[in-house]
Design goal:
This protein has helices spanning about 5-25, 35-50, 55-75, 80-90. The chain is mainly alpha-helical. The protein is globular.
């Protein structure tokens, strides 16, 4: 028996994503994407560590990508969902980070 209702936890995760993006719209509290997206990543990733299924975590990530896309299109509607998703992935620091955005490690 699960200790939590997965559907309710996914809804909570999506609301957390919404809350973070609302914070971004508050004058004087806006973070640059290079700081904001890793914060968002930490919040979404935490849902995976609590036992949420991979499908549940993916649903939260998809919501985050869609919100980011919506806000990007408000600034410049010429970019597609895929382009905005790739842009967001460039700012991630974990395993979802875009391969194009990764830097090679320097030899020690």
């Amino acid at each position: 028996m699960k200790a939590f209702d997965e559907e309710a936890v996914v809804a909570l995760g999506k609301e957390q994503v919404e809350a973070l993006f609302r914070r971004q719209e508050t004058p004087g509290q806006t973070l640059d994407d290079r700081d904001f997206i890793p914060l968002l990543e930490a919040v979404v990733s935490a849902f995976g560590t609590m036992g949420l299924s991979s499908a549940g975590v993916e649903a939260i990530w998809d919501h985050a990508y869609n919100v980011y896309d919506r806000l990007c299109r408000q600034s410049d509607p010429s970019f597609s969902l895929e382009e905005n998703r790739e842009l967001m992935r460039r700012y991630l620091v974990g395993p979802r980070r875009s391969a194009a955005g990764k830097t090679k490690k320097r030899p020690r």
